[in-house]
Amino acid sequence: MTKKLKRTKNTKKAAIPEHKKHQPGLVCSLAILLATMTFIAGTAIGAFMVAQARRIEERQNRDAVLFIKQGAEIDAVTYVIYRNGLIAERFTDDRPDNKAIMNEEDLRDLKRRIENIDRDSSRAITRESTDFNHGESVMRVFSTRLSRWVILREYSGRDIFQSNAQSVLDLVDPIEQLIERYLHPGDVVED
What we know:
This protein is of the alpha+beta class.
């Protein structure tokens, strides 16, 4: 007859080998996890900042009819015509803004001209390169019908981008006349 052996619990604690005490696999995976989380957080923050910039641009799109921005020189001027008829001249230095309110007829005429731009005309842009550095400036209008900015003229260093569509070119002179009439009324010379 065989005798059954009674099992006893081993009360001695097993010694953990030194190489397993530090668990290099765990440390490595935690480092990878931390790097991944940092990358994801950085990407999320970057996406948030881009979204904020787009929201600012969208606010400008809703409010502005025309936007003309000159370069970053000290005497540069930015012109904005808003949908409510406010026309503003802003300076990059400490000079105060020059503002005026357009009459309803002029504002309605400008909006009508902008809305007459069709999709094909809004994309008809030519590029010309010159030997002269023109600096940085952009003249554009926002078409609510197209839900996009339409470039009338843009200077970027030695390159000039401008529309070659007649409906867009027909906007340049009336806009310049509005700026002169409302913001520089003493400078206008009647023929």
